[in-house]
């Protein structure tokens, strides 16, 4: 794993935006994997500034990692709505090319299979953007998820429900209990992965993902088996890494 460091979240977003822009720039039909949550927001802001300055992402196909089960797509906290608001519009993506798992589908098992097939039909993901949960989840692959898992319905961990209650007026009872998420195997099939993490609450998960054993108890640890993963961290998120992990400080 390559680890790049910046003093703060905004700097990490700039570094990650540089990596994303460089990877997609010369591809005739780029496929970008996009994540929700607060982790990638500095990256989206930095990328949006580049789009404003002339970077054209309108030919990019995008696949979101996950969606809640049980929220209508027009609920403001559905990932359909979040991706439209925080990714599609600011990055100038073509909404027709932006895909989000159908968490509201009557048959979610069929919806999961369709989603896997759509990614394959698009040629696979060129670059996957990831955040990381405080419990080490990626997408909504909670502890216990297999390395070869695919898009499927999962139950959210209590820690994730508590963490995400901030998007539901602080009321954990309003957070959906299940989600439709790309599996770890789906995520690992991306040709390149850029994970953004900032803040002290992520420091434990980051250290275990990088230095711990590969284990379903810390799903992000399975990223160790991918050949092209970059973690872009602020100092707080990197604070529990040992010096042996050789993080590289990058100027903004
Ligand atoms: N499903 C998402 C993940 O894709 C995200 O990476 C993670 C961390 O969220 P945040 O970046 O807001 O800390 O949890 C969320 O619930």
Fold and architecture overview:
This protein is α/β, with parallel strands linked by helices. It has a single domain, classed as Rossmann fold, CATH 3.40.50.1360. Helix content is 29%, strand content 17%. It contains 7 helices and 11 strands. The strands form 2 sheets. The protein has an 8-stranded parallel beta sheet with strand order 5-3-2-6-9-10-1-11, with helices on one face. A 3-stranded antiparallel beta sheet has the order 4-8-7. Helix 1 packs across helix 2. The model has no long low-confidence stretch (mean pLDDT 95). It binds 2-amino-2-deoxy-6-O-phosphono-alpha-D-glucopyranose. 2-amino-2-deoxy-6-O-phosphono-alpha-D-glucopyranose binds at residues 35-39, 65-66, 131-133, 139-140, 160, 164.
Provide a brief overview of the structure.
Its EC number is 3.5.99.6. It is built from seven helices and eleven strands.
Unreliable segments of 5+ consecutive residues = none
CATH architecture term: 3-Layer(aba) Sandwich
CATH class: Alpha Beta
The number of domains: 1
Q: Which distinct ligands sit in these coordinates? A: 2-amino-2-deoxy-6-O-phosphono-alpha-D-glucopyranose
Molecular shape: globular
CATH third-tier fold name: Rossmann fold
Oligomer: single chain
Major sheet: size, sense and barrel closure?
8 strands, parallel
Mean pLDDT: 95
How widely separated are the two ends?
A: 20 Å
Number of strands: 11
Number of helices: 7
Return the structural class. alpha/beta
SSE string: EHEHEEHEHEEHEHEHEE
Fraction in helix: 25-40%
Proportion in β-strands? 15-25%
Radius of gyration: 17 Å
- What is the topology, as strand order, of the major beta sheet? 5-3-2-6-9-10-1-11
